[in-house]
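Dear colleague,

Following up on yesterday's call, I've attached the two folding results inline so they're easy to grep. Please treat them as preliminary; we haven't cross-checked anything against experimental data yet. The first protein's sequence and structure tokens come first.
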Amino acid sequence: MQTGNAAEEDWDLLVSFFPANWRHLARLSGALKGLRQDKSEENLLRVLMLHVGCGFSMRETVVRAKQAQLAELSAVALFKRLRKSKDWLYRLCCALFEERGLRIQPPPNQRLRLLDSTQVKEPGKTGSLWRIHYSFQWPSLACDYFKITAAEGNGTGESLQQFPLSPQDYVLADRGFCRANGIHFAARNQAYVAIRLNPHGIRLQKEAGSEFHLAQRLQTIRKTGQIGQWRVFIPFEASAPLPARVCVIRKSQSAIALAHKKLRRRASKTGTELQPETLFYAQFVMILNDLSGTRFPGAADPGVLSLSVANRIGL
């Protein structure tokens, strides 16, 4: 399978999607500082897109940039140029949001935070493996916290407990963080969460304490775009069960087919057997949240809000 290369794309077509003042923003942000006069903001952006858009490593990016006659620079020089261009790329994103009428301003004294973690490996065949835990604020995308731990062992996995949470923090995270201990930790710190639901990673109850059967409820969500919401409780050890809400929306047929294709490819690659319930759950975007109308001012329907935000940021 061939990998897309931004250097070979129709550049005029790509430029048509940029904000009208994208060149001015390059000068305004200082991204061109130190750049030779014979080098343009256009070539710089094309090189940056090879790295951030196509996912090529620094080394591969500089090789491809040289082959395309965009620039001749080292991986170190590219890294420095990327750091100088941080504000430019941020302003480009903000300008695109503004052109589409999207203005997200969190209420005063409240922080909307995006949490995630990833593994990094030291160079070489025997390089050590580490895990980076990091948090961004939305919509500024400013990193407000990170730490590095070992990739294996107690206290190293994905968890909300890896992060300092404060009252009025509103946290969005992927399914790896969908665990009862982390959600109860957030509640104790008066923070609120919207997490992509992992049905296999957490136990849900009804108010009376009986098991909440998610699959049975999902059977009623049959049309593309149809939304379902149910009140649930999250038990954890000796703590009182935490009230929350499951919010789901059914995907389109094309999105379902793509999700199933990815699951089958992953199962084939790892040599594991794909369970029917996994394919069933892949038909939905499912969010577990403890946001309510009183806790999230201005949100008439926080269930729909959490689904909308999760879809926008790709959770």
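Below is the second protein, in the same order (sequence, then structure):
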Amino acid sequence: MSKQGKILLGLVSFLPIALIIVYGIFFISMFTLAFRESVRQKGPPAFLLGNMGYLQVTMALLVISALGLLIFYLIHAINNTRLDNTDRLVWVLALLLGNVVAYPIYWFMQVWKAPATTTYQS
């Protein structure tokens, strides 16, 4: 993989973590706005459902990026000839159980530090 490809994959590997942070910011700001608005008027705020679109789009992007990275890294870990069977099993379990946190770690340890000419099993 070229250096530009490794850098792009690294940026994409951190994308789910960034989207979780953005989702948390949208979630907290939506409810703080709702509480401020409920103090000014009686009854539930009318704009609360309008802001749900930001949360839904952020969550959809998070799910799509996390699932795509999971599939990519599982295939990469299974076909990585630099890993023996024990390491391969550990990485597969780490990717399945700690996926969003494991993506940047796997990228750094197995993709970024990999030599330029890596061969894969067929």
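For the second protein, one point worth flagging: Residues 78 and 89 are 8 Å apart (CA to CA).

Best wishes,
A.L.
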